[in-house]
Write a structure and sequence with these properties.
heterodimer; A: alpha/beta; B: six-stranded antiparallel beta sheet; 20 strands; elongated
Chain lengths: 378, 900
């Protein structure tokens, strides 16, 4: 029996530019931490090798410092780490892999294996034969795994494919298909296991003996399930693999949509449902319409939770203010203010008016200011 | 609200005043000057607006003069909102406040102040009382102090009260207090984003975002450029590596080296062939040279033979010619000898003829002269001793035949003679005889010739050589001629000397010198005799002397002639001394002249013949010399050539030369054949072509080597650069910037909408307010109109919509600015406007008692009358209290009168 840890898409060096300085630093640090956790996990579970199925680095120009941090984080597991160049870190001239080899050599690390040639790597005393399909360019176009079909490996070795790209006809629409992989590759190449990367979510049963491990530490608001690694056990050549999904992520990236119709209370309910908002990044897309008083309430709710979540990304482009009579009664205005509000309402309601969004916001501002002034009077 | 009563005690100038039972309508308070009307108003203000515990200058002023320990107290009863109140305040001394109202017990202390503010709608100043006027709300407007009635409304803080009051009137048109607050808030929002001129403010969030965006974009451009540069380098590096690999795989360098080696071997072969060809070429050239030498030798030999033959022929021809010319020359020389002899003969004959002719002439002369002398002597003898002396001198002088001319002629002849001698000496051949010992030579004259001495031969001479015979030497043509010339010159000189009576040239010169001396003496004697005998005898004497001189001369010649005649007289038959000089002499003379002429002709002919003969001889001699020279030259040439050819033949006969040439021809042909063979070998690949091929191969190798080296260098350089740039995180930095820019742009869009919204809100509010204001002055004007109509018919007031200040009035359509109205008109307009505003305020629920302190002092009686009507009209709704010092002005008003 041989046990492997299959991971991919670490995307070390991802910049997280949409976040403020503090969160950016934390998110970046989290990626190194996940490597440490994986190393610890690999050591704890006694795996024979770690397979990294591409995109360990976000870019080929990643800082040497970051490469060093990765090597540091890998320290807990001294067995072989087999890295496959993916589309982000393709084995082009001057790629990160040359530098990583150099840095590993300098440290005297023999367990860092860069699979940048399409030829079998036999390791673990001949028990494991890895067939890598390294990307030499960002987009290859052709199926690089084709050679697996005719590759000769020792009969006693477990035959494992290592590739980065899109498994044909198996991924959802819209997945990047720049580097296609035949869906039946595991079968045609007589593989015991095909370790894939590129798809950031964990896909354990996408095809026979074929698994996307996904990224161990999510880096985007997903429509899939990131944050896992696969622990794979194969009893011997030709035996079916046993695949275990193990969570390793620290941050929870969540995306939610909510439609609000006249009432903001659902938002409170939704936000309160998160168990660990402190390590949750939530993208909340709001749609619908709210009267002004509810809109103000919504802002209050969000202001509260914004501080409690690690990051709260509110998309309210489709959420509209709809001041009703009640609002206007609350505004309790008469005279020219009411005239002005009416003017703005007309403007906001006119779909041809380019200033309607500003008008909508202006009404809300008037409302908020008015409420503030009224509160001051009381 | 209206005031019901007012009690004032110990307040400034008022010790005590009680005004009870004010009418809710019009009231008049009369007081003389200094009675305290204005103090009354001040006390009223103090009661309502001055905090009872207040201190400070304003409060101190409440004390009466010298009122230490006094207690200024004001008590006012008023009705407000249907309830009755009594307010009492004491200041400074035991300060206290109390307010009775519709409640169980009066409230006192600070609560009073708060209650008052609430009731009357004003705010207390925060600290101190300096801004009291601004805080008393509408009362500033309504309680008009003395002397201020005509300065406008001075509406101040009352404005808000007025507008607030008006809101009730105009209903929803105005936004009220909150509307204004909202505008202020909206302005605040707007000002966050925009400047007063509508530009984006320097500290506006948009500006900050834009600045940040600009920085990020610039940075992004930089990073992208760096990234692009890196990409380019990587691409270049990859390209170089591929190229290098291509070179390695194709073994390009090794192949080039092999090609060079092959080319070098080819070159060596070609050079070898070239050397062989060159050797053959050299051999051919040598053979050709040998052949050319043989041909040349043969040609030269033939030429020599030809030349020798022609030289011999020329010599023979020349010898024949010379013989001819030589014979001719001899003949010519003989002819000259004959001519010379003939000339000699002719000359001798001529000389003889001349001598005879001369002798004959002298004899005739002598005879004639003797006769003349004889005749003259007779005359002269008659003269004295002087004449004798003269005669003696003359005789001596006459003896000397020489004169200057003769001397010159002698000179010339002598020079010519010497000249001839010299030339003859030069021209004449010199012969030196050197006989063997014992031998001797005798000259033609028979004299012995000295041995070893050169001897000039002037004419054909024959020398007797002992033991040999005779040698005749004949000088060339020139010498013979010169000798003749010499002889002629000698003869001429001798003739002249003879003529001059001198034996030699020196003698002639001596004679000439002597003659000169005698001449001098003669001249002296003649002069002396002329002095003695100055008559005509002189001529006779001169003639005598001349005759005697001639006679003497003739006599001298006559002696010579005698000799000559004796020897060679052809007319020996005639005796000259015996003949008649006149008859016989004439015939003889003619004969002699004819003979002389004949002799001369013969001599001249002989001269010419000689001359011709000489010229002929000279020409032939010259020709002969030339021919002789030619002959000698040709002879030597012929001999030399014939000697040369003989020598050459002896060395190598002509047959040998011919054989050699034939041999050389054969050798050349053989060599040519060999070189043709080498040439064809060489043509296959010459050394030049081989060298070019080698150079090409070398160049190609060098080029390839350089290319490969360059590729290696470039690869190394690029690897270094890429190593540095590769780990710089430039891709990450660019991605980060892109994401940050996207994020900022999102934020900017949001802020931009916020900015737009705040501006929109503010401008919309302002716009709405402006529209509302169009309406809100209406009610005020409506209320003013009826009052104004009473005092200034057909006029309308113009109020500032912001400040509500009076701007002016419109009378019959003409706008008159308030400050330019008369003082009376100003106070009237101000009062009626105040009354109208008070009505507005009252309607708004504000306390609205109007107090006018001497407010109509500038109003004329007619208008005052009208003002009374206005006041009465206003007092229907308002409490109006008129404070005046002129009771009679308001007597007719029918209002309650209060006196101070």
């Amino acid at each position: 029996m041989i046990r492997l840890l299959h991971t991919a898409d670490w995307q070390i060096g991802k910049p997280f530019g949409g976040f403020d300085e503090e969160r950016r630093a934390e998110l970046r640090a989290a990626r190194f931490a996940s490597v440490s956790r994986m190393a610890a996990l690999a050591a704890a579970r006694g795996v024979a090798a770690v397979l990294v199925a591409g995109d360990a680095f976000d870019d080929n120009t990643v800082h040497d410092r970051d490469v060093n941090r990765v090597l540091d984080a890998m320290a807990a597991f001294s067995g072989p780490w087999i890295f496959l160049p993916g589309n982000h870190d393709a084995a082009t001239t001057g790629s990160v892999w040359g530098r990583m080899r150099g840095l590993a050599q300098r440290r005297g690390l023999a367990n860092v294996v860069v699979a940048d040639e399409p030829e079998p790597i036999v390791t673990c005393e001949g028990r494991l034969a890895v067939l890598p399909a390294p990307l030499l360019r960002r987009h290859e176009g052709a199926d690089l795994t084709q050679w697996f079909d005719h590759a000769e490996t020792p009969s006693s070795a477990v035959r494992v494919g290592l590739a980065h790209g899109a498994l044909e006809n198996r991924l959802p629409e819209g997945a990047d298909a720049g580097n296609p992989i035949a869906e039946a590759r595991a079968t045609t190449a007589r593989l015991d296991y095909l370790a894939l990367g590129d798809w950031h979510g964990f896909l354990g049963d996408i095809a026979p003996k074929t698994v996307y491990a996904g990224t161990p530490e999510p880096d985007r608001y997903p429509a899939n399930e990131p944050g896992f690694v696969a622990i794979v056990e194969i009893d011997g050549p030709g035996e079916a693999p046993r695949i275990e999904r193990v969570a390793v992520a620290h941050y929870i990236w969540a995306a939610r949509s909510l439609r609000l119709d006249g009432e903001a209370g659902d938002v409170e309910t939704l936000l309160a449902a998160f168990v660990e908002p402190g390590r949750t990044l939530l993208r909340l897309t709001l749609a619908g319409s709210l009267p002004l008083r509810e809109r103000v309430r919504l802002e209050e709710i969000l202001a509260h939770w914004r501080d409690r979540f690690f990051h709260l990304d509110i998309r309210d482009d489709d959420l509209f203010d709809e001041p009703d009579e009640d609002d206007l009664d609350r505004i309790d205005v008469s005279g020219f203010v009411r005239t002005a509000i009416e003017t703005l309402r007309t403007k906001a309601a006119d779909p041809t008016d380019p200033g309607r969004e500003a008008a909508r916001l202006a009404i809300r501002m008037a409302y908020v200011e008015h409420r503030r002034l009224t509160a001051g009077e009381r | 609200m209206y005031l019901k009563s007012l009690r004032v005690s110990e307040f400034a100038s008022i010790l005590r005043a009680d005004l009870e039972g004010f009418d809710p309508g019009l009231n008049v308070v009369v007081g003389d000057n200094e009675a305290g009307k204005s103090t009354l108003l001040k006390a009223l203000r103090a009661a309502f607006f001055q905090k009872y515990r207040g201190r400070g200058e304003a409060v101190e002023a409440f004390l009466p003069y010298g009122g230490e320990g006094r207690r200024p107290t004001v008590s006012v009863a008023f009705s407000h909102g249907g309830a009755d109140y009594r307010l009492t305040k004491s200041f400074l001394t035991r300060a206290a406040a109390e307010l009775e109202g519709p409640w169980a017990s009066p409230i006192a202390g600070d609560a009073v102040e708060e209650k008052l503010a609430e009731l009357l709608g004003f705010t207390h100043p925060g600290r101190g009382d300096s801004k009291l006027a601004e805080h008393q709300g509408a009362f500033g407007l309504l309680w008009v102090e003395q002397g201020r009635s005509n300065t406008g409304l001075d509406i101040g803080a009352g404005r808000d009260a007025v507008t607030a009051s008006l809101e009730g009137e105009v209903g929803t048109i105005l936004g009220g207090e909150r509307g204004r607050s909202l505008i202020a808030a909206a302005k605040g929002l707007n000002d966050r984003h925009f400047t007063a001129t509508g530009r984006i403010g320097a500290n506006a969030p948009l500006k900050t975002l834009d600045d940040e965006l600009a920085v990020l974009r610039a940075e992004l451009v930089q990073k992208r450029a760096a990234h692009a540069e890196l990409e380019q380098k990587l691409k270049k590096l990859e390209d170089r590596r591929r190229s290098l690999k291509g070179y390695d795989e194709a073994r390009t360098v090794e192949k080039a080296e092999e090609a060079l080696r092959a080319a070098e071997a080819g070159l060596r072969r070609a050079e070898e062939r070239d050397r062989e060809w060159q050797a053959a070429d050299t051999a051919l050239k040598q053979a050709e040279a040998v052949r050319a030498g043989a041909a040349e030798a043969l040609k030269r030999r033939d030429g020599q033979a030809k030349e020798a033959a022609s030289a011999r022929r020329a010599f023979e021809a020349a010898a024949a010619d010379f013989a001819e010319i030589d014979a001719a020359a001899r003949a010519a020389a003989d002819a000259v000898g004959v001519a010379v002899m003939e000339q000699e003969t002719a000359r001798i004959a001529l000389k003889l003829a001349e001598a005879r002719h001369e002798a004959h002439r002298r004899r005739s002369d002598l005879a004639r002269e003797s006769a003349t002398r004889d005749r003259l002597l007779a005359v002269v003898e008659a003269a004295g001793g002087l004449s004798e002396q003269i005669a003696q001198v003359g005789a001596r002088l006459d003896v000397i035949a020489i004169d200057r001319k003769a001397l010159d002629a002698i000179d010339k002849a002598a020079r010519r003679l010497r000249d001839c001698e010299v030339r003859l000496q030069v021209t004449a051949p010199a012969v030196t005889f050197e006989p063997a010992s014992g031998g001797s030579v005798r000259a033609p004259d028979g004299s012995a010739v000295a041995a070893g001495e050169p001897r000039r031969i002037l004419s054909r001479s024959r020398f007797e050589l002992d033991g040999f015979g005779a040698v005749t030497i004949e000088p060339g043509g020139g010498a013979a001629n010169l000798e003749a010339e010499l002889r002629e010159a000698e003869a001429a000189l001798a003739r002249l000397l003879r003529g001059a009576g001198a034996a030699s040239e020196a003698e002639a010169r001596q004679a000439f010198a002597q003659r000169q001396e005698l001449d001098a003496e003669m001249k002296l004697l003649s002069a002396r005799r002329d002095a003695l005998v100055p008559d005509g005898l002189d001529a006779a004497r001169a003639r005598l002397r001349a005759a005697e001189a001639a006679l003497g001369r003739l006599a001298a010649f006559a002696e010579d002639d005698t000799v000559t005649d004796d020897a060679e007289n052809p007319f020996g038959d005639a005796a000259p001394g015996n003949e008649d000089p006149s008859a016989a002499g004439e015939a003889v003379s003619e004969r002699l002249v004819a003979a002389l002429e004949a002799a001369r002709r013969q001599a001249s002919a002989a001269d010419r013949a000689l001359d011709a003969a000489r010229r002929g001889s000279e020409a032939t001699t010259l020709r002969r010399v030339a021919a002789e020279s030619d002959l000698a030259h040709l002879k030597s040439q012929a001999e030399r050539l014939s000697a040369e050819i003989a020598a050459a033949e002896a060395a190598s006969p002509r047959e040998v030369l011919v054989a050699r040439l034939a041999e050389a021809d054969i050798d050349c042909d053989a060599k040519r054949g060999r070189i043709a063979l080498r040439e064809s070998e060489r043509g296959a690949e010459g050394p030049d072509a081989a060298e070019a091929r080698r150079r090409d191969a070398e160049k190609a190798l060098r080029q390839i080597g350089e290319t490969v080296q360059r590729l290696r260098d470039e690869t190394l350089g690029l690897e270094g650069e890429v190593r540095v740039a590769g780990g710089s995180g430039v891709g990450e930095a660019a991605a980060l910037l892109e994401e940050r820019i996207a994020d900022l742009e999102r934020r900017r869009a949001r802020v931009a909408i916020e900015a737009d919204a705040s501006r929109l809100l503010y401008t919309t509010l302002l716009e709405a307010q402006r529209a509302a204001r169009e309406h809100w002055l209406g009610p005020i004007k409506t209320r003013v109109a009826p009052f104004l109509k009473l005092i200034h018919p057909e006029s309308d007031i113009d109020l500032d919509e912001e400040t509500l200040e009076l701007k002016g009035i419109l009378r019959a359509g003409v706008e008159e600015r308030f400050e330019r109205l008369s003082a009376g008109a100003r106070e009237q307009v101000a009062v009626v406007t105040r009354l109208a505003l008070a009505q507005v305020l009252k309607q708004g629920g504000h306390p609205a008692t109007v107090i006018l302190d001497d407010a109509l002092v500038n109003t004329d009686e007619i208008r005052l009358e009208r003002m009374h009507r206005v006041l009465r009209e206003a007092a229907r709704e308002l409490q109006v209290i008129v404070l005046t010092c002129r009771e009679r002005d308001f007597r007719d008003l029918g209002a309650p009168m209060f006196r101070l």
